[in-house]
Amino acid sequence: MSWEDAWREGRTRWDAGGPAPALVEALRDEFLPSGNALVTGCGSGYDVFALAESGRSTTGLDMAPTAAKRFEQLRRERGIQPAMARVALADFFTWNPGRRFDVVWDYTFCCALPPSQRHRWGYRMSELVAPEGRLATLVFPMAPDAPRDQGPPFPLFPEDVAAALPGWTVAEERTPTTSHPGREGMERLILWRPPT
């Protein structure tokens, strides 16, 4: 099954219908850096719209055409200008945006990749995050009893993300106080600083 098949057939249980509560909280608390932003695996675009409405020019990246169509429909309904929220239809591993980003938001994207691909994910982040930028990972699902080789989503923990980001350091981290229903206690928000 491809991601496009899932979107076309409506099998998108990961689509929670709104932005990650932890992102809303982080924006309210000014936890994330300003500047241009990227959301990996953006789907319908809820997190993109939250970042755009906070004043960040934001690009969402997804490889499913049906998700991109849904994104554009919701952007128009919200009255958000394309200059503030746009979607790029491309493969994360081969996409060339032509620039780096001040903040990259990753939630339910890294955990959708097989664990064997996490090192490639980390390498791509080193190409996408600006030297003074930050990678914001909402680490999920921290499910200690789940089989590590079954997914998506594959269980993901802060140490897994750290292993995929050699040379990166933690700038800040926090445990969200709010989550989508059913995800409580399974998330950790970490801001990563790229190697100098």
Describe it for me?
The protein is an alpha/beta fold. The chain has a single domain, classed as Rossmann fold. The protein is 28% helix and 22% strand. It contains six helices and seven strands. A seven-stranded mixed β-sheet has the order 3-2-1-4-5-7-6. Helix 5 links the parallel strand 4 and strand 5. Helix 5 crosses helix 6. The longest helix has 14 residues. The protein is globular, with a radius of gyration of 15 Å.
- Biggest sheet descriptor: 7 strands, mixed
**Count of DSSP strands:** 7
Low-confidence stretches: none
- Cα end-to-end separation: 40 Å
In short:
With 196 residues, the protein is of the alpha/beta class. The chain has one domain (3-10, 18-193): Rossmann fold (3-Layer(aba) Sandwich). It has helices at residues 3-8, 21-28, 46-53, 65-78, 118-128, 158-164; strands spanning 37-40, 58-62, 85-89, 101-107, 129-139, 169-174, 188-193.
Question: What descriptors fit this protein?
Answer:
196 residues; alpha/beta; Rossmann fold; globular
Topology at a glance:
Layout: H1 3-8, H2 21-28, E1 37-40, H3 46-53, E2 58-62, H4 65-78, E3 85-89, E4 101-107, H5 118-128, E5 129-139, H6 158-164, E6 169-174, E7 188-193
Helix pairs in contact: 5-6
